[in-house]
């Protein structure tokens, strides 16, 4: 059954809105993957609130045009899948890269970062970054380091005083 013009316009509006509010977008080719592999891929992406959808390239180009994103280097003409995260920039790239080992047919092709089209090299660099939670944990550790050091230094003097008093009391016995 053919898709009506209204349905196409609604799909385009939805895609445009998703891309507009997206923090991380990765393009992937999926030819050769089975339905079971695609379902497993979607399931793993959903765990981190990443949406995975197959889109037509012409529809994607119209959405990019509506958002004012330059797609001169856009080379796709076949089926393409988008992994879109509304929460974290690195999540789609990181998850898809980890799933490439299990699915050799999954190929990362680029993405959108800071409302610009980027190549696969940028996507792979984003994939090598840690998750937002891990980075926040490291930040907290770095920020609490000086306070922890100060407590250690201040408690050292008290500990040395107590050790000296204990030695004096044992000597007097």
Tag the structure with descriptive keywords:
173 residues, alpha+beta, Alpha-Beta Plaits, 2 domains, 6 helices, elongated
In short:
With 173 residues, the chain is of the alpha+beta class.
Can you put this structure into words, describing what you see?
With 173 residues, the chain is of the alpha+beta class. It folds into two domains: 5-129, Alpha-Beta Plaits, CATH 3.30.70.1730; 134-173. The protein contains six helices and five strands, in the order H-E-H-E-H-E-H-E-E-H-H. Strands 2-3-1-4-5 form a five-stranded antiparallel sheet. Strand 4 (107-113) and strand 5 (116-118) form a beta hairpin. Helix 1 crosses helix 3 (57-67) and helix 4 (91-99) packs across helix 5 (120-127). 20% of the residues are buried. The mean pLDDT is 85.
